[in-house]
Amino acid sequence: MEPKLKMSKTIRHLLHDIERISVVVREVEEELVTARPSSLTTKKILVLKEKLSEVHARLDGIHEFVLGCQRQAQEQPVVQETDVWL
Q1: Which of 14, 40, 65, 74 is the most exposed place for a label (fewest CB within 10 A)?
Q2: Neighbours of 31 (CB within 10 A)
Q3: What is the distance between the alpha carbons of residues 79 and 74, in angstroms, rounded to a whole number?
Q4: How far is CA 15 from CA 1, 39, 44, 61, in A?
């Protein structure tokens, strides 16, 4: 795949991940604001933890991609291709 096309595709994935992260964070914030301490059941807490795990995984993918771009900008050899988690 042509480098510019590949970069464009990866950027679209990153923008999608950033949008998804924002949605998940807003959902979790809203749940925590509207929940009463007695209404936070184990199931609800597990759902919130799962959503936050998704955020962390997406952020890790974005971080690795940005580091790869930084290495390329500094003309350091890229050891491996970064695969963005979707």
Answers
A1: 74
A2: 16
A3: 14
A4: 20, 34, 28, 12
Locate tokens 């930084």: which residue?
Answer: 70
Q: Where are the alpha helices (DSSP H) in the chain?
A: 3-34, 42-73
Assess whether pLDDT exceeds 70 at residue 16: yes
Q: Which long-range contacts (CB under 8 A, 24 or more apart) does 24-30 make?
A: 24/51, 24/52, 24/54, 24/55, 25/55, 27/51, 28/52
Enter the pTM of the model.
0.62
How far from 49 is each of 25, 62, 76, CA to CA, in Å?
A: 11, 20, 37
The domain spans of the chain are 3-73
Taking residues 49-70, what's their average pLDDT? 86
Q: Which two tokens stand for residue 8?
A: 């464009």
58, burial (CB in 10 Å: exposed 0-12, middle 13-18, buried 19+): buried
